[in-house]
Specification:
There is one protein chain. The chain is mainly alpha-helical. The chain folds into 2 domains: 2-202, Cation efflux protein transmembrane domain (Alpha-lytic protease prodomain-like, Up-down Bundle), CATH 1.20.1510; 208-330, Cation efflux protein, cytoplasmic domain (Alpha-Beta Plaits). Helix content is 63%, strand content 9%. It contains 10 helices and 3 strands. Strands 1-2-3 form a 3-stranded mixed sheet, with helices on one face. Helix 1 (2-28) runs antiparallel to helix 4 (108-135) and helix 4 runs antiparallel to helix 5 (139-167). The two termini are 52 Å apart.
Length: 331
């Protein structure tokens, strides 16, 4: 599986970069370099956790996991976010200690070369992984790619700080701690965002962007036979997209005709998202009060003239009630 192979390469790359940054920290004794090195520790841990979670998430659903194993990716990202946040706290502690008990920095020129090389590798690898993650709808790969790219951006500022300390012959050594603390805060914010996104997935929080995309696809390709759609729920676990909805069709449709419309709906969503889709569609028969919303011109049993088709939007398609129904009819 491509995702597993990519994640395995991420794990190997993370170990190599971590070793290089630890050598740079040992040579320079710089807290800024330590910041980069600690982020690499997180990368290593997250890479192996991601490899484990993607392997688990790729398993087909079974009797114990009827919705599949995709939530394993959320758990992996939650651990990664926690580790990133903790790394930021450790860096702040080391930076404060460096300010209170200053020590001489050394071999900054060699450290600059090592960190610069690692930053370049991080950037291009991160871009590639992020792109692959979006293509295959893998939260673990997207998180890993984002982290590597953000790591490369922080490397630029670290390189500038090291260069200033080097050019001033350690007279501005305090910059080492100050820059490190600034980026520790950025690291902690990044960790919080990853953790927050993971918890949202674990709690089945609605992905508004994904829901809007599904609604947009359905609205643009809507058929006159699809009188109404409501109680729409969309959730994604790994590469599997789950779509639940109540679909209102003409009441005189036979089972085979209704099944044909469901198949068309599934093909439409699958073609757009290019991943596995599992639909749970409950069929409702249209009611006379919906005639004014129904655009099916060939309807032989119309009770009221067509007025205007209701445009499906987030605020009206998630409710568990048929559109056009009055409060009295609902009662």
């Amino acid at each position: 599986m491509l995702q597993i192979r990519i994640q395995r390469n991420i794990a190997i790359l993370s170990v190599v970069l971590f070793c290089g940054k630890m050598v740079a920290w040992y040579l320079t004794n710089s807290v800024m370099v330590l910041t980069d090195a600690l982020e690499s520790i997180v990368n290593v841990a997250a890479a192996f956790l991601g490899l484990f979670s993607i392997t688990i998430a790729a398993r087909p659903r079974d009797t114990n996991h009827p919705y599949g194993h995709g939530k394993a990716e959320f758990l992996s990202s939650a651990v990664e976010g926690s580790l990133i946040f903790i790394a930021g706290i450790v860096v702040i502690y080391q930076a404060i200690h460096q300010l209170l008990v200053p020590h001489q920095l050394q071999k900054l020129d060699i450290g600059l070369l090592i960190i610069a090389g690692a930053g370049i590798v991080n950037f291009f690898a991160g871009r590639f992984i992020e792109k692959a993650g979006k293509k295959h709808n893998s939260m673990v790969l997207v998180s890993a790619g984002n982290h590597l790219v953000s790591d490369s951006y922080s490397t630029i500022a670290i390189l500038i700080g090291l260069a200033l300390v080097l050019l001033t012959h350690n007279r501005w050594a305090w910059l080492d701690s100050v820059v490190a603390m600034c980026f520790a805060i950025i690291v902690m914010v990044t960790g919080y965002k990853v953790l927050r996104r993971s918890v949202a997935g674990i709690m089945d929080e609605m992905d508004i962007k994904l829901l809007n995309e599904v609604i947009d696809v359905l609205q643009k390709n809507r058929k006159p036979e699809w009188v109404d759609l409501h109680n729409l729920r969309v959730i994604q676990y790994g590469s599997m997209l789950h779509v639940d909805a109540h679909m209102t069709l003409p009441w005189y449709y036979k089972v085979a005709e209704a099944e044909k419309e469901i198949d068309l709906l599934e093909q439409l969503i699958t073609a757009h998202f290019s991943n596995q889709v599992e639909l749970f569609i409950h069929i409702d028969a249209c009611m006379p009060y919906q005639c004014k919303l129904c655009a099916l011109e060939s309807c032989p049993v119309r009770k009221e003239p067509f007025q205007q088709q209701l445009e499906w939007k987030v605020d009206n398609i998630w409710a568990n009630s048929k559109h056009g129904e009055t409060p009295k009819q609902q009662a």
